[in-house]
Amino acid sequence: MRRTYLVTGGAGFIGSHLVEALLGQGHQVVAFDNLSTGRLRNLDHLGHDPGLRFVQGSVLDELAVDELMHACDSVIHLAAAVGVKLIVDEPLRSFTTNIRGSEIVIESAFRHRRPILLASTSEIYGKNSDVPLRETDDRILGPTTTARWAYSTAKAVDEILAYAYHRERGLPTTVVRLFNTVGPRQSPAYGMVVPRLARQAVAGAPLTVYGDGTQSRCFCHVSDVVDALLGLLDNPDAVGGVFNVGSTEEVTIYALAERIVQRAGSSSPIRLVPYDHAYPFGFEDMKRRLPSIDRIRNLTGWHPTRTLDDILAETIAEAAAERAASVAGTI
Ligand SMILES: NC(=O)c1ccc[n+]([C@@H]2O[C@H](COP(=O)([O-])OP(=O)(O)OC[C@H]3O[C@@H](n4cnc5c(N)ncnc54)[C@H](O)[C@@H]3O)[C@@H](O)[C@H]2O)c1
């Protein structure tokens, strides 16, 4: 059935891929974004699609959110201040957007009785390094003065609100905890490690690895993440649930840097940078972060299909194309 979806953060990295997939399924989409980290150019290639409407504005604007909510059948809330660097550099704006913005979107979804799919994060688990992390696992956090735990707490408040609206008011809410997601159109500007290292490699600059590089992560391709979202969207069995979405292919950040250098055919050295040089205002990292994806797999059959090598090939190609264009003076 053809539906109209409101995608907050629709000009962002994940948002633009989701918008594209929804349009591809014949739906109508309203992409709502204040273009703080998102870019209109992420949607350029979809500009001809009559099913797409882009609205520039903030989720902090209650009237605008309400008007758009009214015109849509369902909402996917992705708008947020994202990226380790951004949340460390601008903790106040990040916290306000991530708590107040989500509250406004959830309240509006309730007023209009619209199902909502809410993007949360693996940061919810804080420094719990259990392997694998299950949705029911504990949150282990450090001091409130560390920006990372403020981001984790803001997203936890969003989850709690969504769940409370579901339980007490019957609003159909579904929460996805996204683990590291990568792929085309991800900006390196806000602390995302794969696009940053890929750009350093193609520029012949040293690859800067924070800490000792033995911390490990799992990187999931954005098209797999979008497939996971589509499987949960408007799925009655997902309502009231929380789902991890991520890859289970684990790599240390040092090994990741080595692989990027090798695959880019680069001769860049790898340089270790102490955390307190990279993030002077307080930073803590966690050793491992590997999701259990049993819950979503059991419900929808979803599992990631793209390998880390697929992801690196694409990210390096994008970085190289960008560099060639900038050297030629076309961007
Ligand atoms: N990329 C990841 O690895 C990852 C991991 C975990 C969770 N997430 C979550 O996924 C969602 C999308 O993240 P992304 O990686 O695409 O990042 P992104 O920065 O590309 O997307 C966020 C979008 O929200 C927009 N935005 C920010 N503040 C806004 C506001 N006040 N009003 C309207 N729009 C606003 C930005 O302009 C941007 O387009 C976020 O909720 C994020 O917390 C992402």
Helices and strands in order, then pairings?
Elements (H helix, E strand, L loop, with lengths): L3 E5 L4 H12 L3 E6 L18 E5 L5 H10 L2 E4 L6 H6 L1 H21 L4 E6 L25 H23 L3 E6 L2 E2 L10 H11 L3 E4 L5 E3 L1 E2 H11 L9 E4 L4 E3 H12 L5 E4 L1 H4 L15 H7 L7 H20 L4
Parallel strand pairs: 1-2, 1-4, 2-3, 4-5, 5-6, 6-11, 7-10, 8-13
Antiparallel strand pairs: 9-12
Helix pairs in contact: 1-7, 2-4, 4-5, 6-8, 6-11, 8-11
The site of nicotinamide-adenine-dinucleotide has 28 residues, from helix 1, helix 4 and strand 5.
Q: Could you please describe the fold and organization of this structure?
A:
The protein is α/β, with parallel strands linked by helices and 331 residues long. The chain has a domain at 4-182 and 220-248 and 291-305: Rossmann fold. The chain contains eleven helices and 13 strands. The protein has helices spanning 13-24, 62-71, 84-89, 91-111, 147-169, 193-203, 222-232, 253-264, 275-278, 294-300, 308-327, and strands at residues 4-8, 28-33, 52-56, 74-77, 116-121, 173-178, 181-182, 207-210, 216-218, 220-221, 242-245, 250-252, 270-273. It has a seven-stranded parallel beta sheet, sandwiched between helices. Strand 5 (116-121), helix 5 and strand 6 form a beta-alpha-beta unit. Helix 1 (13-24) crosses helix 7 and helix 4 (91-111) runs parallel beside helix 5. The longest helix has 23 residues, at 147-169. It is globular and about 55 Å long. Residues 8-9, 11-15, 33-38, 58-60, 78-82, 97, 101, 119, 121, 178, 180-181 line the site of nicotinamide-adenine-dinucleotide.
